[in-house]
Fold:
Amino acid sequence: MDNNRQNNNKDKKPGGGIPQSIFGALIALVAISFIYSMIFSGTAGRYLSNNQAEISYSEFIQKVNEGKIYRVRISSEDIYAYEKGETFNKDEEVEIKNEQDIKNVLENFQKSQDKIYHIVKVGDDKDLVNRLIEKGNIEIIGVKASIIMDLIISLAPFIILWLLIGMFARRMSGGMGGGIGGIFSVGQSKAKRYMQRETGVTFKDVAGEDEAKESLQEIVDFLHNPKKYTYVGAKLPKGALLVGPPGTGKTLLAKAVAGEAKVPFFSMTGSDFVEMFAGVGASRVRDLFKQAKAAAPCIVFIDEIDAIGRSRDTRAGSGADSEREQTLNQLLSEMDGFEINNGIMVMAATNRPEILDQALLRPGRFDRRIVVEKPDLKGRINILKVHAKDVKLDDTVDFEEIALSTSGAVGADLANMINEAAITAAKAKRDKVCQQDLKDAVEVVLVGKEKKDRILSKEERKIVSYHEVGHALVTALQKHTEPVQKITIVPRTMGALGYVLQTPEEEKYLNTKKELEEKLVVFLSGRAAEDIVFDTITTGAANDIEQATKLARAMVTQYGMSEKFGLMGLATNHSMYLENGVDMNCGDETATQVDEEVQKMLKDAFEKAKAMLKEHREALDKIAEYLIEKETITGKEFMKLFTEITGIAEVKNERVSEKEDGDNV
Ligand code: ADP
Ligand code: MG
Ligand code: ZN
Structure:
């Protein structure tokens, strides 16, 4: 079994003498690949080589327009687009004398293969098919979704390869040994599929996160040139733990380290280790490290390590837990079992560092902690730029404005927004993305798509309209709030029946008590408007109430902003990077008092909102009428009406507050 894996690694490991029979294996491998690619006319390439890439819909369209694509396969969910590879003489006999020859053969083989792009399908095919037909010269193949055929096609190369490798391994170890047995043993070789020889990601692809990159640079440097460090006798940390909220680029950073250092990247996700079968996790860890050692210098990356690294004393001893514990123990012993000088750098990522077992964090293990924060304004601008690199933009585009309105968004959200904007532009048959596309994309990511088919009754529209104008008016009437940018009563897919979009004028890191108090009033003003006008209340304010309660509670228990408790900390945040991670740490009686205090604050805020709206009832009615008619009005239109009716010019902001929220009804 061992031979079997080593064998598989040989071609990945430069240097060192290669036994004769490996040549045979390699040649057979190439031959099999040829046969395969002939039989399945290119489909197999996607499993056997690096010639497949995932691209976005917009890149795909671009390639079609550039005339690069000669064949397109369309199934119900996917599109595969084929680009011709360079040709070379497949029949030419190559004499193999050394490693370089093998490399050349493999390289030529890869170049000759078609590039196959995988695109996740967006929208309707008729459009696409017509467009492709218009282009001419493109072979269009429809694929009926046949799971079984797909499965056979995708599994066959693996099975053939495994059999082949098993055969060679057996021959090498003198005919005996568990070649075939090894092939079918559970969980053994999963790591293979997770090895990337080159991640192709560098620090340039990661925007912002300068502190994290700086700490990681050291690791890159070490992997590049270990002698420099070992010569002086410096010991580097064996493991680095990336911690931060989801979507901030932890996985991306780990890949970038491998890319910068030009070393192979082994990665597995915590949950991969945890399976139903006992002992599988531990054996996967063993296997992973064995392969990594053979490929060193390299990076072993364990994503979402909390799945296995959860503190051992905080959990009951169910079956799954003892499995997890075994896996964790194996990981610890592997990490203790090698010297960093062997050139393996272990990295892990998590968004729940507080639940990790202390043993993982001890010196010699993940003793370096690298914090990957949510991006600030500048970070967001840079992330937008990185992702817009291959997107055509017109000159209305202003990333700063977008970044300002997306406080709290992480890299993954921003990447998503750029893509949404590009799709919008492509759908509208424009060849460039404009600022409005980006603004719409921000809304799509924050509150979902417009849901045009949800028809509200006349009465409902009226209620929603008053509710939203209530929010907007109270926002405008207070000093420390963010300017209203848009009010709409077009329902969205993520549940909002309407909302008020607010955008801060500058990035903020601290909120004053005043700002938070005013925010509370804004949250409750939708309900206040309903109460005043219709004398009934609806379910529409559920989200407002939830947010208001959360904020009021945090003000009392965490920010020391209540008169009653003053500076006393009454709750601890046990999860830094996830929401809902707050635990009360006070006696029952105090907890009851906290509840009372929160209730009081909410009630006060509600009364304040009602008072304001009653005072400006005329504005409320008129603007709500206007909104019912228009469905969506801009902040400018709103302010114009507001000033006309109330005679109040802008009550504008001394400071604007940080969080922008697409506020659900
Ligand atoms: P995490 O592992 O922290 O949950 P990922 O690394 O998986 O986040 O990020 C998801 C995607 O979001 C990335 O593939 C990338 O496209 C984008 N992204 C996140 N952070 C950044 C960043 N700082 N710079 C550029 N892109 C980013
Ligand atoms: Mg991740
Ligand atoms: Zn609301």
Summary: The pocket of adenosine-5'-diphosphate (ligand 1) is lined by residues 206-209, 246-252, 349, 383, 386, 411-412, 415 (CB under 6 Å). Residues 588-615 form the longest helix (28 residues). The chain has five domains: 2-38+151-184, 42-145, 192-371, 381-447, 458-661.
